[in-house]
Sequence to fold (208 residues):
Amino acid sequence: MEVAVLKHSGEDTGRKVSLNDAIFGIEPNDHAIYLDVKQHLANKRQGTHKSKERSEIIGSTKKIKKQKGTGTARAGSIKSPIFRGGGRVFGPKPRNYGFKLNKKLKALARKSALVYKAKDKSIAVLEDFNFDTPKTKDYISMLEGLSLVDKKTLLVLSEKNSNVILSGRNIKNTNVITVDELNTYDVLHADNLLLSESSIEKIEKILN
Fold:
């Protein structure tokens, strides 16, 4: 699969780059995508939820009424879950929601996500570029040149570039990452995937 290489201003350079069929041309695996996205979202959960059970409630341990003769159910403690202010039955406790996935499955999920973007023709390859200084206006100008102002975009760089990252940080629906940070969730969440020309080789190296 060949994709035209564009300048960050949106102009065509006249060159084309070939996307490896071993990554961008495989049969996508939806279940692998599901598991990888599920793990990504699970790892983002804080898991700090907590409620008090009856043993943790501060209150009197005195029997609140006599056992028999009241005409109502027996009750031995004000901390009982059936009373207002009592403990909660099987309440949530702090826990880690993360779980393990094999590296090969995660790689398959990322490949599958890239395949869907390629099929939708939502991948654009940009000639390697840099901004002189971090400037949001420059990043917006780039999106305007690519006709992607109102779209969710994910820009993938081969290596960290502070000027580009800081320029796009405050723009809504825009995300800038490096190849090492590439994940299934971000790829699928974006409407359009922007790959720097030098990032393609690193993506192929990592996923193969």
Summary: The chain has two domains: 2-46+98-207, 51-91.
